[in-house]
Amino acid sequence: MEQSGRQAWMERWRCVACMVILVMFWSKASAQIRYSISEEVREGSVVGNIAKDLGIDKATLKDREYRIVGSSTEPLFRLNNDDGILYVSRKVDREEICERSNACIINLKTVLENPLEIHYVVIEVLDVNDHSPVFPEKEKRLEIFESTLPGARFQLQPARDPDGGQFTVQQYKLSHNDHFRLEVKERGEDRKMPFLILQKQLDREAMREHKLLLTAVDGGKPAKSGTIEILIEVLDVNDNSPVFTKDMYSAVLNENAAPGTLVIQVNATDLDEGANSEIIYSFGKEVDTHLQKLFNIDTTTGEIIVTGLIDFEENESYEIDIQASDKGTIPISTYKTVIVKVIDLNDNPPEIEVTSFSKSVPEDSRIGTTVALISVNDLDSGPNGKVSCLLREDVPFAISPSLQDNMYAIVTKSLLDREEKYSYELTIVAKDTGDPSLSSEKTISVAVSDVNDNRPQFSLSPYTFYISENNDLVAPVFSVRASDLDESDNAHISYHIPRDSSADNLGLFLNINSETGDISALKSFDFETLKTFQFQVVATDSGTPSLSNNVTVNVFILDQNDNTPVILYPVSSNGSA
Predict the structure, then answer these.
(1) How far is CA 30 from CA 26, 33, 108, in A?
(2) Quick one: which of 29, 51, 277, 568 has the fewest CB in 10 Å?
(3) In this predicted structure, what is the pLDDT of residue 189?
């Protein structure tokens, strides 16, 4: 019982002793020294004289050990045990030690042995503007559609500056640009967030890329800065129509050009890009099917080629409506008209048409009498359609131009004579002046109609007949014949004997057949009474007016032995035989 009481007493004294020691310790450790140094000071630079500042003389330090204990930052400093001066043992980098703390404080614990004394030293590392602001990237790329409306915001990564306080980033500057401005927002303590604001709508076709320079500036004097290049790629929107490279497209094309012949190549460009700039060519929606049979357009190259028969005489020119469309999601089209002028080739011979024709012309027609009217037409144009006409044969006709274009008259150029030639074959030749020249022919037959311009002509003049006396009264005793070069009624002849054409009215004893010219005697002739006589025969045609001719007929009576001899007695002067 006594033993346990003694142990309890001992424990009490130990506690009291500990408390005394603690009081003594804390009284010695209550001293605290504060220094400040700038970062980046050279190795060996003096921080402060701890011994002097604590009132410890150098003599005391010789017998007692003075050192730094229990600090992870100990390698930064060393304490000279001889004089108690604290030195920088290596380069002090505030940003390494304190990162981004506003106040960089280093707490050192120093121990002075025999007796034990603990002293605390507070070292503040003052910031130096030894870092420039740095952006996370050297280059920032943004993609912005050209259709983006003004006011759009684009957040940018802020620059970092390891320095603190006023030496950190204080402002941002943006290179001059008409399309963008800079806006900076405060985000928390000592942090600024830059935003790019679109203030004017972009146009990729005017500028497809914008280069901006963003500068971060700290608050040092002199200030330090860092930059980042902002590359803005303007993304295309199909906002441009295709544009043809020419205001007007025109071409000339020979008619009858072979299928596949290139007429013209059109070309359009689109300021957009990608599918928005790829062009498809086609005919306009209003192009009729006939035109599409004559021409074709290559959808890729814009080449227009011939696919059908090009005929100048059908169309002298063509207006082809075409369109260029891009391949955008909603295509945009531009329209243009291509004018194709067809060059005439001499591929059509002249056409001859007889518009008025007299199949016969009187032989007494005056020179210049119109026989026929003809029209000549050539579907070609220019020299290819200019036509001249002529008659191939050497005939008494000529072709005379009319007052009306392409009209001609066939007229007589000399007097006609049906009795010489009663019909003509006229070959009309129409020839153009193309190269090579083309011609055509047309033949018409012209008959020369008779005019009573010829008198009957007797086969003999005069006629002489010998008739035996005592002639037969039944058969004709002689005949006369006349002919007429005219025809039809103009050549139909009738005969008659004028009643006063023979002496002593012998004509009264003669009869002539008016159709045949046969002459009969109404009595027998007697040589002993009449030995010869003469009369006239008139031949008259049936024309209007009629023409006639006459002939003299001489008749000699031949004696026949038709009388017996007669004895004649002499007669005396007194009348008796």
Answers:
(1) 6, 10, 14
(2) 568
(3) 62
